[in-house]
Structure formats: C-alpha cells, structure tokens
Amino acid sequence: MNRLRRMMQGRNGSDQFAIALLYFGVILALFGSLLELGYLLILSYVPLIMSIFRTFSKDIASRRRENQDYLTAMAHLKAMVWRKKRSVTGSETHRYYICPYCKQKLRVPKGKGKVAITCPHCGKEFKKKS
Ligand SMILES: [Zn+2]
After folding, report:
1. pTM of the predicted model as reported, rounded to 2 decimal places
2. Same domain, yes or no: 60 and 115
C-alpha cells in the first residue's frame, strides 16, 4: 500500500475526465468485439491510453485545466439536452410551440384545450391544442 502511495505521489491520479475516457474506451472495445469490428477494437486503445497517461501524469496543472474544460463541456451538453427535451415534451405546466410565421419559440400553459395563440413577436395568430 505504501509503495502504491509513493508511486502516485506528485501525479494527477484519476479524475472525472480520466474515468470518462476509461468508460469510453471500454464501450468502444465492447462494441468492437461484439460487432467484430477490428478497427474499433484498435481505436479503443486511444482513450484507454489517454486515461492511463492522465492518471500517471505529473503535469497536474495542465490535467486540472483539461478536467475543468471537460466538466464545463459536459455541463453545457447536459443543459442543451435538458432544454431540447423540455422543448419536445414540454414541462409539467407548459407546452412549447414554434410560431409558424416567424419561428419564435412560444410557451403555452398545458391543459387548456384548443387555444388561439397570438405570437407576441409577429402578432399573428394560430391554433394549437395545449
Ligand atoms: Zn410569430
């Protein structure tokens, strides 16, 4: 245990980005072997090696910056997926429509039956079920 601790001293260790790379590599390897795609199997070594490199890297400042960039990108992606999901399924209380005339996104309360929606952007009216 002490030997392992001494070996990892001054190194980055595993962070969220290294773990994500590890998962990505394993998933690529699984798909590569299940679908018998040799190039995918070989390609899966790239994220795996990157993950090992990150874990044992001594340039901690750079690895921390990369990990922060990864976390920021994932937060943006998550927010984008959430917004897209909400615009497709609507929220608990509202539905979202796009004005057929000016493409403005509109929010309408749910459960009011068929309503005439007046677009606040272009002023034109269209009917939708809420
Ligand atoms: Zn409009």
Report:
1. 0.68
2. no
